[in-house]
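sorry for the late reply, my laptop died twice this morning and i had to redo everyting from scratch. anyway the thing you sent over, i finally got around to it. pasting the sequence first so we're on the same page, its 112 residues, then the predicted structure underneath. double check i copied it right bc i was rushing
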Amino acid sequence: EVQLVESGGGLVQPGGSLRLSCAASGFTISSNTMTWVRQAPGQGLDWVSSIFAGGGYTTYADDVKGRFTISRDNAKNTLYLQMNNLKPEDTGVYYCTTPGTRGQGTQVTVSS
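ok and here's the structure:
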């Protein structure tokens, strides 16, 4: 069974950092393109970042570029999103996804 389980969300002050994790099972993340998306309150899903299969090329949305870093640990079959210099507009539920599958999400709240 293909499954994605996110963790690491929480409440953080503006300027703070969080690292999200996404543990995958039922498939090998290095063989799939993995993506983080987020959903702000009352809004649709927005793409945040992707890491491509194989060589691990990464891409970022303009509003997180330079602040967020996507990575993966192939030995742990786990995807990460390091988020630095967080802003209130980063608040939302963060999901990791791969084609056909999405996790349950983890809440990130940036507030003073």
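The radius of gyration is 13 Å.
thats about all i looked at so far, will dig more tmrw
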